Amino acid sequence: MLFSPYITKPDSVSKIMLQVLFALIPGIAIYVWFYGPAILVSLLLASLTALSTEALMLKLRERPIAPFLKDNSALLTAWLLALSIPPLAPWWLIVVGTMFAIAIAKHLYGGLGSNPFNPAMIGYAVLIISFPSQMTHWLAPGGLGSAGLDFQSQLNYIFRGALPDGLTLDGVTMATPLDTLKTQLHMNGQMKSILEMPIYGRLAGVGSEWVSLGFLLGGIYLYARRIIGWHIPAIFLITLFAISGVFHLMDPARYAGPLFQWFSGASMLGAFFILTDPITSPTTPKGRMIFAFGAAILTFLIRVYGGFPDGVAFATLLMNICVPLIDAWTQPAVFGRKDER
Amino acid sequence: MLSALLAMGAIAITLGAVLGFAAIRFRVEGNPLVDKIDAVLPQTQCGQCGYPGCKPYATAIAEGTADINLCPPGGEEGIHKLADLLGTEFKPFGGSTVPKPKSVALIDESTCIGCTLCIQACPVDAIVGAAKQMHTVIAAECTGCELCVPPCPVDCISMEPIADTTGNWKWQYPVYAIMPSQTAP
Amino acid sequence: MRKLHTFHGGVHPATCKTQSNGSPIAKAKLPSKLVIPLRQHVGHSARTTVEVGERVRKGQIIGQADGHVSSAVHASTSGTISAIGMQPVAHPSGLPEPCITLIPDGLDEWMELEPCEDWKAVPHSELRHRLRNAGVVGLGGAVFPSDMKLYAHKHKIKTLVLNGAECEPYITCDDLLMRERAEEVLKGAELMRELLYADEVLIGIEDNKPEAIAAMRDAAGKHSGMEVIAVPTIYPGGGAKQLIRVLTGIEVAAGVRSTDLGVQCFNVGTAYSAWRAIRFGEPLISRIVTVTGNVESPQNFEALIGMPIAELIAQAGNLPGTTGLIMGGPMMGVLLPSDKAGVVKATNCIIAASDALFPPPRPVLPCIRCTRCADACPAELQPQDLYWFARAKNFTKAEEYHLFDCIECGACSYVCPSNIPLVQYYRFAKSEIWAQQAGQKAADAARERHEFRESRLERDKREKAEKLAAKEKAAARSEPAPVSDKPDTKPQDEIARKIQAAIDQAKAQAAEVKPKNTEQLTPQQMAEIAEIEARRARIREIAQASTDAQPRE
Asked: CB B140 to CB C435 under 8 A?
């Protein structure tokens, strides 16, 4: 208590991060409902890896460990990464990804607050480039695969790489709805007939559309609690809607509709949880809108024309690069100086 | 072949003419760099750099014959500014040149004999007095260069450090730790 | 209903005002001594007009306004001047300032006052002069001499804003003043309006003070063109710039005079003091101070200027567990370096801090760019960027990002989830920039003087050479000069001899004067030394005054 102000709002980084984790729960719950508890194993593995990597890095960097471990930021990175990769993946995949995210993408850049790129998305990018095949085997939602996989078998696969007798990996997993669409279109499939495939539901993929809705719900909660602003999610979703809508109207046979884009892949997770990461997004309102706009355009382009199943991660990383420039360009006018510009 | 040579020749002549014209048209009087360096120097005119004043030192820096770390009154701050201006590396003070706390000269009036030698030495006319009259330093104008100290035949000039007052007091850089004490139980 | 405007940002800390606004203003008991700083205002220190041992009466000027921006200070009660010298004051540095110590004689005997029944007949310049001599300065915290602000400049002043918002938590002195002395506050406003030729008076009071609003509305009924407006409670809604914005929609940028935009703003307490000064001739010798926090009975006191803060706290009842004293509110207040400092004109509140009220700061984490600070900043700055620049000592960039538009309200630090002392970084950066500017100014002046000297020496040399040449010419024309080297060398010898003689004499003198600090001194010697010391002190003072000349803010 040396300088004013002597009072502070009872708010903390730790509480903010906790709120974000809390807001992920509806999406995770729906995930478990459709795909079984494998995702919980991923989340747990990622969390443990993240916390131990964080502690190790803090020790190596000679920083106090307890206050930083308690800030929950490593947990959030872990959860976001776990939610971005297939739940039915060998255990080392999530461990390697999380370690890379925390050690390289976060701590080598200076730790909390100093990383220019979203660590979870760096982890995702590293995994999808290094282990593309493991990264495309997604669990089929309940009832869709040739056979359901109970929890015991899921654990068996994750840790021992063994599936029950008579089952192949292709039998229990599938490509994501976005990936499937792209592949089918590539093979000159017709949009209408593709979307009639059993993996597609009302809006997008069976199951995944509901998970997206869960994340939307969590996002609305975050906005209501003013943990995030409206600029990034709103502009991202509106832009994605608009651009996919325009393309869809021009050629409905080749371009999926805007709602499909909204509820596929990581659109909702990205709009509310990934792009809104304060450390790697712009600080000015105008800057945030530009950032979200760019991210939406890039997401769409990568989804439609790129070689990867989803575009949110790379769009986020590409826009992360632009953040300092966007911030410098979009400095708002200050009190009493609005006529000066 | 010939046309190429001619074309190249023509271009060379044109560009040469443009450059020649520009050299005359936009000619800069004096060396602007010297003035820029001089603006950064603290103007104590103390000669501690080994040059007879700030301007000569600035000229020497501009010519590349002097180092940037020779000005103790400018402090490390001053070296940083010079390094920024010249696009060179920061260079710490060498062995004997050490910055001292800012001070002003004070004449012990009971000992002053009124010889005017200090008045002649003062580079900024900050000492008033006349022959056989007691001299005094205008503290506000004194740059603390100490040039008046050696000429005084009766050693009546001392350098008094400027005291901290509420007027020149500065807020400190906030120093806080991420409380390692709290991490230990 | 008047349409109110809003300003960006702001925070809602717990107001903590009910502790101290329940009981009426109490008159503080006469203290054992008064420590009255010569500078309690923005600008030059006042010049002492009394001597140690002199008896003064209540209201007598003991420090005369000195310089363009300055104000007088007065004896707060009758008594004897016991000391004039450096004493601890309410300044965050803890450095002492010149103060006058007055021992009250208990008689509380006023000097003859010059009341003025019909002030409207007095010329404005005279009214301003009286305000200056009465030591009336802004009581909201800025303590700018009020006479300087009561000019109708080139611009027509449309609105006089009276600030009764009192947005800082804990402070209730304006609240109580408005409840109890509304009529006199408004008469002061009338006086100010007259001096400014302003059309309307808008009195802004935050809506968490219903009693004050009611009392002021009641009193305002008797005046025309005055409106009491309840403004939303939000910190820092009582900042002059913010209140002007809320009431008029005008934004006054940093470095811009509000009068240029047709608005002038005063604190309600200032209006009250101005009225007392003009109508009754009473100088500003007391003010209302909220004493709250960790004390037995938090309340408002009418305290004499100079009253030691420790004695004021004691009158509210000391409680164990007090860890420090804050002057002002918890958002912008100054932690007092000593409880021996006296109440000054800026002392609106003293909070006895305890760990229960103000827990020690939590650990600081890195900035996560969450921009809660930018959302809270009433100056619409980007505090997270300013923090970055100030931390890296990149002052050029900090200025470019409008560091000096920061009003140091503390809203950013208040909301920071990483507990970064943001305002502290801005204060640091500002004072570094000020020091650099002062250094630059001194260097420029030195350069100018040096160059002038060089050219003068050059000119002297040239003139000498010309004279010599003319002489030689003249000599050549007439007779061949009597050749002699003697006159050339003799003066040199003469000078050297004289200097040597002077040196010897001085040495002898020095030897005589040497035992300066011993006890065996003749009264004459002592008088001489005292005289010389006084002269030096004056020289130092002059030098000090000129280095202090640039007021901050």
From this structure: no
For chain C, how many structural domains are there in total?
2
Quick one: which H or E segment has residue C291?
Answer: strand C286-293
Q: So what's the pLDDT on residue B34?
A: 86
Residue B177: the pLDDT is 53
CA distance A134 to A119: 20
Chain A residues whose beta carbon lies within 8 Å of the beta carbon of residue C410: 4-5
Q: Is residue C266 part of a domain?
A: yes
Three-state DSSP state, C229: strand
The domain spanning residue C294 has which CATH number? Answer: 3.40.50.11540
CATH class of B101-164: alpha beta
The confidence score (pLDDT) of residue A211 equals: 92
What CATH number matches the domain at B32-86, 3.30.565.10, 3.60.10.10, 2.30.29.30, 1.10.15.40? 1.10.15.40
What's the CA gap between C445 and C248, in Å, rounded?
43
When pLDDT is averaged across residues A24-45 and rounded to a whole number, the result is 92
Average pLDDT for residues C256-284, to the nearest whole number?
Answer: 93
AA letter at C123: P
Residue C16: CB atoms within 10 Å: 20
Domain termination site, one of C289, C304, C319: C304
Q: How confident is the model at residue C127 (pLDDT cuts 50, 70, 90)?
A: very high
- Domain identity same for C173 and C80: yes
3-state secondary structure of C93: coil
Domain span at residue C444 reads 367-457
- Smallest CA–CA distance, residue C422 to chain A, in Å, is 10
Do the chains contact at B174 and C425, CB–CB below 8 Å? yes
Nearest-CA distance C148 → chain B (Å): 22
- What is the average pLDDT score of chain B? 83
* Chain B residues lying within 8 Å of C434, measured CB to CB: 170
The residues, any chain, with a CB within 8 Å of residue C77's CB and separated by 6 or more, are C30, C34, C58, C102, C104, C108, C285, C304
- For residue A337, is it within any domain? no
Nearest CB partner across the interface for A7, out of C92, C414, C417: C414
The domain boundary residue, chosen from A174, A207, A227? A174
The edge-to-edge listing of strands for the beta sheet with C159-163 is: C226-231, C200-206, C159-163, C263-267
CB within 8 Å of A335: residues ≥ 6 apart: C7, C8, C241, C245, C251, C253, C378, C379, C380, C381, C405
- Work out whether strand B136-137 and strand B127-128 pair parallel, antiparallel, or are unpaired: antiparallel
For residues C182-201, give the mean pLDDT. Answer: 94
pLDDT number for residue C552: 43
For residue C515, pLDDT beyond 80: no
Task: Indicate the pLDDT class of residue A183, thresholds 50, 70 and 90.
Answer: confident
The subunits that touch chain A, with at least 3 C-beta pairs less than 8 Å apart, are B, C
Q: What is the span of the domain harbouring residue A247?
A: 176-329
Give the mean model confidence (pLDDT) for residues C361-383.
92
Kindly report the average pLDDT of chain C as a whole number: 88
> Where do the domains of chain B lie?
32-86, 101-164
In this predicted structure, the answer to whether residue B123 has a pLDDT above a threshold of 70 is yes
- Of C206, C39, C10, nearest to C137 (Cα)? C39
In a shared domain, residues C299 and C405: no
Q: How far is CA C509 from the centre of its chain?
A: 45
**How far is B166 from chain A, CA to nearest CA, in Å?**
17
Helix axes C210-220, C173-196, angle to 10 degrees: 30
A178 in contact with chain C, both atoms CB, cutoff 8 A: no
Question: Which chain A positions have a beta carbon within 8 Å of B178's beta carbon?
Answer: 63-64, 67-68
Report pLDDT for A232. Answer: 96
Q: Same structural domain for residues A73 and A46?
A: yes
**All partners of chain C with 3 or more CB pairs under 8 angstroms:** A, B
Same domain, yes or no: A32 and A166? yes
Average pLDDT over residues A301-325: 92
